[in-house]
Amino acid sequence: MKIASWNVNSLNVRLPHLEQWLRDAAPDVVGVQETKLEDARFPDAVLAALGYRTVFHGQKTYNGVAILAHDRMIADVQMGIPDFHDDQKRVVAATVDDVRIINLYVVNGQDVGTEKYAYKLRWLEAVHDWIARELQAHPKLVVLGDFNIAPDARDVHDPAVWNDDHILTSTAERAALQRLLALGLHDAFRLHNDEAGVFSWWDYRQAAFRRGMGLRIDLTLVSDALKPLAVASGIDREPRTWERPSDHAPAWVQLAR
DNA sequence: ATGGTCGACCCTCGA
């Protein structure tokens, strides 16, 4: 079972890329972020033609998330974080076969010290408390998404810039990610790969992709129960080379079954 | 050089 996460930065623009990548990579489950589409405009029929069932939780202009599952039923769908009021559509969870999938579009946070940064930390705290409960109910859990946090210095192109005081790498953000992992989750990429400089996001500005100036902020986390089944993982850079690309590349984990 | 490029939308904001 191949499970992936991709921030498409507008599904309206990127639907052809998603279709192409689904054909190329043949993932079984995909969590998509930044669809930027109201639910009425979600292209579920196009994805159904490729064999994918979908659930989606979207809004106009900003945010928006979805889960795609190839040839599999999607059950027990949860939109948003329970008991956490949020007008921003950033979370969808569902059960596919016997695996619970939580798809997150984590708050960006703009800059350390801003109101958006405070919202990011509050939001991560609510996610933490919810996932603690989800793990009790669903030991076979995958948490994936655009985390907008680079876990450590290997995950940034320039650690002097992306330091303890910088957005996406600040001490409090990384601590929030570590608290999530401490619940019994594992960064699947790091189960199979310890090298530095493998990234999932490159800014559109400064020709960052061509110059290798990226960050690894798109993660797939597997629970203790699934860790022994995680046989491979990676980041597929190729869609970032296509014409008019998303600024993110898909990250994936393969579960043996 | 406090920018750069996108996407959505209406002119500027969010990333």
Account of the 3D structure:
- Residues 4-248 form the Endonuclease/exonuclease/phosphatase domain.
- Its cofactor is Mg(2+).
- This is Exodeoxyribonuclease III.
- Helices cover 25% and strands 28% of the residues.
- The chain is an alpha+beta fold.
- It has one domain: Deoxyribonuclease I, Chain A (4-Layer Sandwich).
- A six-stranded mixed beta sheet has the order 3-4-2-1-14-13.
- Strand 6 (91-96) and strand 7 form a beta hairpin.
- Helix 3 runs parallel beside helix 4.
- It is globular and about 45 Å long.
- The termini are close together.
- The model has no long low-confidence stretch (mean pLDDT 98).
- The structure holds one DNA strand of 15 nucleotides.
How are strands sequenced across the largest beta sheet? 3-4-2-1-14-13
Largest sheet: 6 strands, mixed
Terminal Cα span = 7 Å
**What series of H and E elements makes up the topology?**
EHEHEEEEEHEHEHEEEEHE
CATH topology: Deoxyribonuclease I, Chain A
The radius of gyration computed from the alpha-carbon positions, rounded to a whole number of angstroms, is 17 Å
Q: What CATH architecture label applies?
A: 4-Layer Sandwich
By secondary-structure content and strand pairing, the structural class works out as alpha+beta
CATH superfamily: Endonuclease/exonuclease/phosphatase
Poorly predicted ranges: none
The outline comes out as globular
Q: Estimate the strand proportion.
A: 25-35%
- CATH C-level class is Alpha Beta
Total beta strands: 14
As for the number of domains, it is 1
Tally of DSSP helical segments: 6
Mean pLDDT: 98
Percent helix range: 10-25%
Domain Endonuclease/exonuclease/phosphatase: 4-248
Cofactor: Mg(2+)
Family: Belongs to the DNA repair enzymes AP/ExoA family.
Keywords: Hydrolase, Magnesium, Metal-binding
